[in-house]
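Support request, priority: normal
Reporter: lab tech (M.K.)
Component: structure prediction queue

Hi team, I submitted a job for AAA family ATPase from Pseudonocardia yunnanensis yesterday, and the status page still shows it as pending. I've pasted the exact input below so you can check whether something in the sequence is tripping the parser. The sequence length should be 524 residues. Please let me know if I need to resubmit or if it's stuck on your end.
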Amino acid sequence: MPRSEGELAGRALELTRLDHAWGRAVRGGVVVELVGEPGIGKSALLGVHTERVRADGGLVLVGRGAECAQKSPYAPLAEALGAHLPSAGLAPFPRPHAVVGSLLERLAARRPAVLALDDLQWADRASVELLGHLLRAPPRAPVLLVLARRPLPRQERLAAALAEATASGLVERVELGPLDDRAATRLVAPSARLMARRDALVRRCGGNPFLLLHVARHGGGVPGAVVDLVVEEIEQLGQEARCLLQGAAVVGDPFDLDLAAVAAGSPVRPPIDELVDAGLVRPADASRAFRFRHPLLHRIVRDHTGPGWSAGAHARAAGALARAGAPPVALAPHVAQSARPGDRTSAGLLIRAADGIAARVPGDAAQWYADALRLLPQVTTAERVVLLTRRAFALESAGRPGAARATVQDVLGLAATGRSAAGTPPTTHRGTAPGCRGSVHAPEGARIVVRRVLGPQARRRVRDELTDREQVVAALVSEGRTNREIGEALHLAEKTVERYVSRVLGKLGARTRAAVGGLLVPLR
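Reply from support: The job had stalled in the queue. We restarted it manually and it finished. Here are the results:
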């Protein structure tokens, strides 16, 4: 089996349509427009079809447009017709379209022919004009003309000529869309190791066979060939459209058009139509919402946007959302990328956002706790213990036990030294970072973190039921301290401690104070 045919998973219908067009062309000229995004399989489909035509006894003429040859007149046609043209080529003729038309008729008079021109998005202006003439006056001979191209917005002349011919019934349009899930998984299914993650891989690549095969061979990373393909597409856009695409990548996927325009610093009327026409984005379900063609495209655009420009775009997006009264969880992704060290207001917003989603999206919460710590270089030991504790819980819930244990070790190191960032050795600090209010006993907080994160019974029974203060109370209860001793350690009234102990017993499902120690087993 030819390699191209092996990569045609899920293209039986499109191949059948080309075969039917060839059957009709034997009785007279037929034109097929083959359209699809880069890597979707146009060239592979053409390769299999032309092999079938050749096996059927037909004459195969194949040419390809090239970005580097856009200044060479008639380049794809010259490649396809090759030895059948005069040595001087088509340029010297006053009416080259007539020469090509008559040449095709002579060749097809001997045996039916297929003229397959691929990558016409790179066709030079002279070739586009000649093809326009052929569409208006097709050869009167058994010729199948297959024109394959990407939907680039800068090929208006060719697109207009094809649209006019399609309306007249001369051209049949075959559009290659993403592979369905079944075909896509079959394409990347050979190895058992890959099968475990192939569903995520299919979603990430949006059913594009080129991306699927290259990313799968690269172990799930983004190979240079894929990046080059996307960059090649983006470079065909105008400057404003490129900025809008980068702003959209900053906002997210899917993205709100107005917010993406603000992030990009675009004009009042952002050039979204150019991105849609190029097939890079598609309308989403919500009004004025769009999504990238596939998640991998979003990642590549985001990762290849300069850090300085990206930070400014995040800041613009955060300002627009804040003015609209958006909640902390909506602001946090942009604040984390644009705030500067020492910005305690932004750190507080990140902590509130992380607290709000820790139970639902612990991975994002863990990152935002880390971002908050990065913005607070002068944080006290007590503040750092609280934030690292919350980050450890989030990492554990996100299924990252190794990172959770490493964070616990950081907490234990702080508790062991008992020193602040300035070098003073206080035993107890009063947290002042936003989101870290209240008296915190760093060593006791460290012990409760260890028990909660690393104790297997705690993972099954406790999770995140206890507040920070309840964690400290539970730790002291597990050490056998009385309510009076706990009150003295935490500067609380005995009645207040009694209420905390009651809540701890209820949340842990413990009937006695001794059972608390059993649920929070310390590591030795």
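The longest strand covers residues 143-149. The chain has four domains: 3-175, 222-314, 327-441, 455-524. Let us know if anything else looks off. Ticket resolved.
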